[in-house]
Amino acid sequence: QWHSNTPKPTQAELDALWDKTKKQIDFVQNRQQAYPSIVDQLDTLYHGGYDAWKAEIDKVKDKYPKGK
Prior knowledge:
- The protein is mainly α.
- Helix content is 74%, strand content 0%.
- The chain is built from two helices and no strands.
- The chain is rod-shaped, with a radius of gyration of 19 Å.
- The two termini are 36 Å apart.
């Protein structure tokens, strides 16, 4: 039983919300898996400098842009 002053959401509304949430979860998981480990990032910073590190990070951001 629905106990709220707001109308009960329809199945279509729930499905749309789930689709949006799933896309956000996939985005975060994809980026997390694609980024180099912290150890590798620090190694890149030490040996290649900021620009080399940024180039690696930008590859992931380009592959998995926000808002898609």
